[in-house]
C-alpha cells in the first residue's frame, strides 16, 4: 500500500476492496470517488455518497472491530495453530506501533467521506437543490453526523486524544500537520455531532427492515448516546436515553429458550440455527438489532472476514473461546451451544451445519442491539442505587437464554461493585465475541483486575493503544501515547 493511503484524512478514491456497497439494505449504488464539476449537482448523488460512507465503514469494522473489542480481553485465547503474530501481540499485551491494527486510517476515511457530504449538501441546499426535498437533506446529513460521531467515539476509546478533522481533504497528497486534541475536545465534538443528528432530524426508520437496521436511525443515535454516556459515567443521562430505546416498538428481544419445546439441542445441535436468536447473527437484521454493519457476498462480494478470526470449520482462525468464558455458562444456558463448539471453536456467527466459507463469510457486525442496551441500563441502575431494577434486567436476559435467574436472596447484601461484576459477567455471556468485552473492562475500571493475571496489564496508560508509526511519520504534529514512547 502506498504511503499516502495512511494519511489521516484518507483517500477519496477508495481501494477496490472497499468499493462494494451493501446492496441488500441500500437501494442506490455507493459513490466514493468524485471527479469533474458534474457531481454534487442533484440530491441522489449525495445519497450515493452517503452509501459510499457506509461502504468505507465496512472496511473499518471488518474484522478490526473484533481485534479492538476482543483481542486484548479474556473472552478469547490464541488458536495455537493460527499463524498470526499480531493477535499474539494483542493477547500477551505486547502492542507496538508497527502492528497494522494500530492504524486509524480506515476510520479517517469514513470521516473524510462524512465531511465531504456535510460540506457539499449545505452548498447544494444554499443553491436551492433541496428546495422540495428537505426530508432527504435532513436524512443524509443526519446520518453523516451520526457516522462521524461513531468514528470519533470508537477511536477515542482506543487511542485517546485524536486529530479533530471536520473539513474534507480533496487532495490525497496534501501535507498534513494536525496535532491531537485532548479527549475533552473529542467528547465535545461527539456530543455536537450526536445532537446535530438528532436535530436534523435523523429518520426513525427507512423503507425496508434491512435498511432500518443497516443505516443510522434515531434509535441507533440513541444507542450511541447511551454508550457515550456510560463511557463518561453520566448515569442519569444514560437512564433517560435508554428508556427511549426500550419504548421504541422497532426493537424486541429475539427468542431463544422455549420451556415447552421438546427439541434436544444436545442431540440435534444444528436445530438451534432455526431460533430467532441464532439467526440474529447468521442472517442479520433481527428485531433486536439497532445498528449493524451490513455485508453481502452474493450481491456485491463484501465480506466481514469474521471467519479469519473465529470459527472451527476445517481451517485455523485466530481465536478460540477461553476456558474462563466457557466456565461462566451453566448447562441449561442455550447461548453456550450458539457461541462455541466442544472444541472451543467460536461458532456464534456461523450456521452449525451447511456453512460455506467461500460464499457465506459475509456475516454482519452487530454494533448495537437491545440486549446490550438493557445490560448497560442495568449498570446505570446499579450505580444510581436501584439494585432490584438492575437485577430484573439481568434476569430478563438470563430467562431468554434458559439460564436460572437470580433470586432476591442471591444478591441481597452485595455492594455496588459486586453487583457490577454480576452484570459484567452477564454481558460477557450475552455479548461475547461481539467486540464489547475490552471496552467493558476499561469503562468500568476493571481491565487491570481481570487482565493482570492473564497478561500482566497493570497501568491505566497501557489501556490506550499505540498510534501507528506510519501515521506519526506522515503527520509530524502527532505525539505517541505515553506508555509507548
UniProtKB/TrEMBL annotation:
Main location: membrane
Domain called RagB/SusD: residue spans: 330-484
Pfam (any one): SusD-like_3
Keywords in alphabetical order: Cell outer membrane, Membrane, Signal
UniProt cross-references to SUPFAM superfamilies, sorted A to Z: TPR-like
Domain of life: Bacteria
Domain SusD-like N-terminal stretches: 90-224
Keyword Membrane appears in the UniProt entry: yes
Keyword check for Membrane: yes
Subcellular location: Cell outer membrane
Family the entry assigns: Belongs to the SusD family.
Protein name: RagB/SusD family nutrient uptake outer membrane protein
Native source organism of the sequence: Chitinophaga qingshengii
Lineage of producing organism: Bacteria, Pseudomonadati, Bacteroidota, Chitinophagia, Chitinophagales
